[in-house]
Every structure is written in structure tokens, then in C-alpha cells.
Design brief:
This protein is an alpha/beta fold. The protein has 17 helices and 21 strands. It is globular and about 80 Å long. The model has no long low-confidence stretch (mean pLDDT 96).
Length: 479
């Protein structure tokens, strides 16, 4: 894949606003923008943050070359002062974010930018597309992994992904969220996502007969032989020929680690029948892999029906999050600074209550029950507030303000960490294995009620009293 310069991967209005800020004398005005989302895909109880590593790479490499500037000049709308400004453009601000793999909830900041107005405005598009895409795929992948109930899930969706980045970074997000690997080889090379796979129907069709195809494959790959048994007929041809190949090639070598894959038909029925045939042939350790347009709903249903499946390959419905393909993260101004450095909160008001923003420079605490270690609620606070976890704290449900609970024995932990300070990276991004392990650990802190697929428990995300008062005052001022 050719390296891509993403500088102009932005909405055009980021540039026209930047031009306007410069000509209006507001180029250097320090501004605060929050990234947050309003609803969890598929009606789930939580989402998973992903895509931060790509944001970091983008920020570190962000610059305009002369070809970029010549192109923008050709549009005929930009002042030469602005084009000259772009020649020296670098990100000089601060970024705070929740680490990748963190369970996240609606309306809370997952990334905050503090930077001069032009810089803060310009980075909006790439930050959103990176966080939105990978958080979406990570969230969907984790639903599928949880539906598999301990059985391995591999991501098989590259050929149905929305472009090369959708395939490669989607595989990365899926791995973070619990998939064991991906069919995408480039994702292995770039990010260390283990590449895996079996065979295509074309392999079987290339040979004069199905048995010869299976026998040849077993000879070539005796320690990783997974045979695709549905090219012709699963039960009358595929499974019997696979059994013969395993018995003739693998068992004489003492190899019992083998598998078959079923990619069509009634997975539950076929897997039950195949299991009986394999066991009767003494191949009790042979695994059964299922694929073919699977998602969490289908996987859960076939397992409830007793399907004898040991692992799953999931493609298009994972890599595109087909059932709910938009994450919906937004990037909204929360505050600006005056000439003296005082933070002036800003709010966006709407007749749609869900679109009213939370003002000011903020941070987020996650409150864990001390005894169980489970996450009980999140609290959005002003940037300089400290939560005293030695005193009882009452939290309100933002969707049902009459609902509240009081936490008495809890530990408060800040979620967001510094990523950039004054344009310099201060965060060492962990490798994908570390992120994956962290993600699993953090999901374990959620109550099962929050992890339900249907009608999950509404996790509490509340505003501190100080922040609520500021928001209420701004609402009153703008009636």
C-alpha cells in the first residue's frame, strides 16, 4: 500500500473557516473541542474506543507542502496570507483522550483538543473519521465475540470492507475487541494482527476431485489443515473426503490437530451431523469452523440450537457493521480562552435535547465499586475538579433525571490521559496486544446487565454539580 498524505483529508469548510479566522484576527484564539457520541450502535449498552494510534500518526505528520498550497490557490477562495500561514503549519496544541480499548458511553468526551482556533478546527475531520470507524468496528466485533461465548472469532471481511483502510484498520479494531486474528495479511504486517485463513472453494475446484484437493492440502500444511467441505455436498462428499484425507495423511504422522469449515447451508444441522461423522471416525479433536454472513444474532441463535461449532469466521457483517454502520461521533466547541487565559464556556443549544452540548474544559472520572471492582458510573467534571472518593456521591441518570443512586464505597479514576502537550507527543502508544488485553480487562469491569444485547442496563453518566450549574446558567442566558 502506497503511503498516503492525509493533509487534505478534511472537510473544505475547515479550510474556509481557517482562512476566515486568520483574516478576522482569531487564528491564535485558544479553543477547546470535544469528541463524543450520542448513542451506542445496535442499541448496545457500551461502545469501545479505538483509532487513537492513527490520530497520533496524523498529528505528528501534519503539514502542507507546496503542491497542497498550489492546489488550494487554484480554488480561488483563499487569501495569500492564509496560504503562507499553511507553509509553516504544525499542530502546537494539547490533546487528551481515553486509551484505546476503553469502554465508552454516550455524551462523555473521549478526546479533547485544546489548540489555536485554526489548528483545532482543521484536525476535526481526520480525528472523527479515525475514531468513528475503528470504534464502530471494535464495538461490533466485541458483540460478535461475546455472542460466540468463548469460541474463537476470526475477522474475514477484507473483500467486503469500505476500501483498503477499512480493511486494514478494521481488522486492527476487531483484534483489539477480541477477535483472534484476521484474514488481512497487511494488518498483520502493519499492526501485528495475526493473519489466518483456510482455503477457498476455488482450491477444491482446481483439482479433478475433492479428495485429491484435500489430500494435497493436508500434505502441504499438515499442522494447519482446515478443509472447506461445502464446495459440493457437505455430508455426502465434503466431510467423508475430509475424513479420508485426515486419516490417510495426518493420523499416520501422529497429527490430530485439524479442522473442517462449513460456509453455507444450515450451520446448526450440518455441524451436528458433521460432528457425529468425525467422532465416529475417531477424529474427536477435529474442530468445526463456521462462516457465511454471520453476526452476533445468528451466532447466538445457532449456539442456542446446539450447533457443534468450535470457532467462527465473520466477514461483511463485522467489517462494515452492517446492522448499524454509523458510529455518530461529533466534534463540538466547548470553550475558548480570552486574552488573559480565562476559559469561557460555550454551548450549542437545540430543540432536540440530545444535541445540547456540555460546555467547558472537562475531564471524566470512572467510579468503580471498591468491593466488586465493577464500574458503577462515569462523572463528567470541570478540568480542575477532584472527585473525593472518601465521601458518598449521588449520581443521576441523564436520561431519567428522577433516577439516582448514591455511591458510598468507590474508587474514582480519571479516564482521559494527555496525548500531546504544546504540539509534542507525551504518550507512548501501546502495541496492539497490550491494547487488546486492556480492552478485555476493562470490559470485565462492566456488569452483565450493561453487556446485554437487548435492553441493556442504562449506565449512569452524570455531570458534576459545578458543571451542571454552568450548563444551566448558559441555557438560561440563551432562552
Amino acid at each position: 500500500m502506497k503511503d498516503m498524505d492525509y493533509t487534505l483529508l478534511c472537510d473544505f469548510y475547515e479550510l474556509t473557516m481557517g482562512n476566515g479566522y486568520l483574516l478576522s484576527g482569531m487564528a491564535d484564539r485558544i479553543s477547546y473541542f470535544d469528541v463524543f457520541f450520542r448513542s451506542v450502535p445496535d442499541g448496545g449498552g457500551f461502545a469501545i474506543a479505538a483509532g487513537l494510534e492513527q490520530v497520533i500518526d496524523y498529528i505528528e505528520n501534519l503539514h502542507f507542502d507546496e503542491e497542497d498550497i498550489d492546489f488550494l490557490r487554484s480554488k480561488g477562495v483563499f487569501d495569500e496570507k492564509f496560504l503562507d500561514y499553511l507553509r509553516h503549519f504544525r499542530f502546537t496544541g494539547d490533546i487528551y483522550a481515553v486509551p484505546e480499548g476503553t469502554p465508552i458511553f454516550p455524551r462523555e468526551p473521549i478526546l479533547t483538543v485544546r489548540a489555536p482556533a485554526i489548528e483545532a478546527q482543521f484536525v476535526e475531520t481526520f480525528i472523527l473519521l479515525s475514531l468513528n470507524h475503528q470504534s464502530l468496528i471494535a464495538t461490533k466485533a466485541n458483540r460478535i465475540v461475546r455472542a460466540a461465548d468463548g469460541r474463537a472469532v476470526s475477522e474475514f471481511g477484507s473483500r467486503r470492507a469500505q476500501g483498503p483502510d477499512g480493511a486494514v484498520q478494521g481488522a486492527r479494531a476487531a483484534y483489539i475487541a477480541g477477535c483472534i486474528g484476521s484474514a488481512c495479511t497487511l494488518s498483520d504486517r502493519m499492526y501485528g494482527v495475526p493473519a489466518n485463513g483456510t482455503m477457498a472453494h476455488s482450491w477444491v475446484q482446481m483439482f479433478d476431485d475433492e479428495y485429491t484437493a484435500f489430500e494435497t492440502y493436508c500434505k502441504l500444511y499438515p499442522h494447519s489443515a482446515t478443509l472447506l467441505v461445502d464446495t459440493y455436498n457437505v455430508l455426502s462428499s465434503g466431510v467423508p473426503n475430509a475424513i479420508r484425507a485426515f486419516q490417510n495423511v495426518l493420523l499416520p504422522q501422529g497429527i490430530q490437530n485439524c479442522a473442517i469449515r462449513i460456509d453455507s447451508g444450515d450451520i446448526t444441522y450440518l455441524s451436528k451431523k458433521a460432528r457425529k461423522m468425525l467422532d465416529a471416525a475417531g477424529l474427536t479433536q477435529c474442530k468445526i469452523v463456521a462462516s457465511n454472513s454471520l453476526d452476533e444474532t445468528i451466532i447466538r441463535d445457532i449456539l442456542l440450537q446446539g450447533a457443534c461449532v468450535d470457532s467462527f469466521g465473520v466477514g461483511e457483517r463485522l467489517i462494515t457493521s452492517k446492522s448499524d454502520p454509523v458510529f455518530g461521533g461529533v466534534y463540538k466547541l466547548a470553550a475558548v480562552e480570552d486574552e488573559k487565559g480565562n476559559i469561557i464556556p460555550k454551548i450549542k443549544i437545540s430543540e432536540n435535547a440530545a444535541k445540547i452540548t456540555n460546555p467547558h474544559f472537562k475531564k471524566v472520572y470512572r467510579l468503580f465499586e471498591r468491593e466488586s471492582g465493577k464500574a458503577a458510573a462515569d462523572l463528567i467534571c470541570l478540568h480542575d475538579e477532584i472527585v473525593d472518593d472518601t465521601k458518598p456521591l449521588t449520581i443521576f441518570d441523564p436520561d431519567f433525571t428522577w433516577k439516582k443512586k448514591t455511591l458510598r464505597d468507590f474508587v474514582a479514576k480519571e479516564l482521559m490521559v494527555p496525548i500531546f502537550k504544546n504540539g509534542e507527543k507525551v504518550y507512548d502508544a501501546p502495541d496492539v496486544e497490550t491494547i487488546r488485553a486492556y480492552c478485555a480487562e476493562q470490559i470485565d469491569t462492566l456488569w452483565d446487565e450493561v453487556k446485554r444485547f437487548e435492553n441493556p442496563h442504562n449506565y449512569y453518566v452524570d455531570l458534576s454539580k459545578k458543571l451542571w450549574d454552568i450548563k444551566h446558567d448558559l441555557l438560561e442566558q440563551n432562552k
